[in-house]
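Extended Data, record Acyl-CoA dehydrogenase
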Amino acid sequence: MPDSNLVLNLENLESVTHAFARKYIAPFTKEVDSKGEFPREAYDAMRRLKFLALFVPKEYGGLGGGMRDYVTICYIFAQYCPTTALCYTMHSGGTLAIAKFGTDSMKAELLPKIANGEIVIALAYRESGSHFGIDMTEKPESKNGVPGVILSGRKSFVTSSNYADFFLTYTNSHDVKGGRNNWLVSAKTPGLSVESSTWDGLGMRGNNSAPIVYNDVWVDSRYRIGSDGEGGTQTDFTMIYGILGFAGVYSGLGRAAFECILSHCKNRKYDDGSSIADVELVRLELADIYTKVASQHALTFNAVDAYERSDVNALRLAFAARLNATQNVLEICGLSMKLGGGIAYSKHLPLERYLRDSYASLAMSPTPDILKKWLGEDIVK
């Protein structure tokens, strides 16, 4: 299919996304995993074909897409390469923050470039040893009369670290007590460096996660998103997108595992011509797997619908959807490996990769235990 038919549009989003994934994601998935390489071919194509412009408003050259569009793309991408889908959530979160909270001048400068594929954003939030807090602080400093701040510190597990053009960096405000800020820091800024060029994870092996070091990095104040101290509010707003994006990723991964094992069971023949799928116990297992896959999709998109209609319970439904997607993807991949037997164990099927990728759902922040804590608090408040 020519690229002219693969430009993302909201009217044919599902069919275009599947076609894009078949051409620019699926052919590279095995290599992305085996070599632990960032899915560069997919992201270079996303730059050209408007996939990075989903959350950019139409007046800046983007698509003006919403939550359902975003989660649908995550769900479809993950069926072909969960790593690619995971990285997509990060860029989307950064774009959303600019579109929602950026100043008019920031939007005018950056959003058209995102829409044109010139900018990919990564999230630099986590810090080792911070007990889920943020230690990085700002030091006000002007350069040639231009107000700005100096950032020093280290952010850990930054996805797309060697590919991103900007890092959305979360800090403590210098002037607002208890306030947080989001800064857009160019990857080319002097003093900023990626600590490692390789990521050797168990699963999601192409996400290129690495620490980012800020060694007296000066940032112009105009690259702070919104007003001083409002970063926490911004992060609270974008959080539900991240949570439902992850739910979409792990639901898509579960769907891929089910389709793989179903095909294997139907096509693996005995000498008498019958298939594995003709065995009653196998059908019982397939029914169990399918139920979990259907549950993932139903809860995820139920939460999406709740968010889009401004339901007061949308956030708790998002927490539940992400928890459900995590719990079920682990079971789906485990059961599929069991049904696949030696063929799956010997890597003749991609189920072993799916299983490894599924374990990322336990480690990606917010982790299941944190989600349970938040969900419990929301339920009883």
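Summary. The first strand starts at residue 121 and ends at 124.
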